[in-house]
Amino acid sequence: MREAGMSLPELLVGMVILAVVLSLAGLAIIPWIAAESSRSAVHEAGMLLQRTKAEALSRNHKCRFLVDIGQREMSVLDGNGTPATTDDLLVVQRRIPSSIGFARPDPGAPITFSPVSGSVFEVVFDSAGRVDSGAGEMVVYGGERYRRLTVYGAGGVRYERWDGLAWTREY
């Protein structure tokens, strides 16, 4: 009589091989996930900047985009049509993942938006959608990759990545 199936040693060897393959795959995917987190964080900031511009245009007064690296948050605030910031209304707020850092591979500060306090920076859009204050850059680091978001005075944004020697456009 012939029996079908596998013996216990054959099953164990198969499980060990599967565990090794899955471990190697996991080690390969972790840096990729961190790199995608940096790309995602820059694009999220860009979308929030565009949202701030759209809010300023639709509300017909100044709106602010804030980056708080201490609290790890990005926010869009409605200026409420007054010069005081104490009455600003929160439109939207997003967390910055803990896997993201603010650093750059070349000389300079990682964030050159207008400083509000030690860890808070802002870009202010006027009612015409132009940058009233804060045009500059934000560079994030994650997964051994650097990504840069540049905000121009006319209200446009540009995404770039560091290729090891220079900044190149993302698309």
Note down, in words, how this protein is organized.
The protein is of the alpha+beta class and 171 residues long. Helix content is 30%, strand content 31%. It has one helix at residues 8-59; strands at 63-68, 73-78, 89-95, 114-115, 120-125, 131-133, 136-142, 145-151, 157-162, 167-169. Strands 1, 2, 3, 4, 5 and 6 form a six-stranded antiparallel sheet that branches. It has a four-stranded antiparallel sheet with strand order 7-8-9-10, with helices on one face. A hairpin with a 4-residue loop joins strand 1 (63-68) and strand 2 (73-78). The N and C termini lie far apart (66 Å).
Main structural class = alpha+beta
Helix content: 25-40%
User: How would a textbook summarize the main sheet?
Assistant: 6 strands, antiparallel
Cα distance, first to last residue? Answer: 66 Å
What is the count of DSSP helices, taking H or I runs of 4+ residues?
1
Task: Give a short overview.
The protein is of the alpha+beta class and about 170 residues long. About 30% of the residues lie in helices and about 30% in strands.
What is the topological layout?
Layout (H helix, E strand, L loop, with lengths): L7 H52 L3 E6 L4 E6 L10 E7 L18 E2 L4 E6 L5 E3 L2 E7 L2 E7 L5 E6 L4 E3 L2
Antiparallel strand pairs: 1-2, 1-5, 2-3, 4-5, 5-6, 7-8, 8-9, 9-10
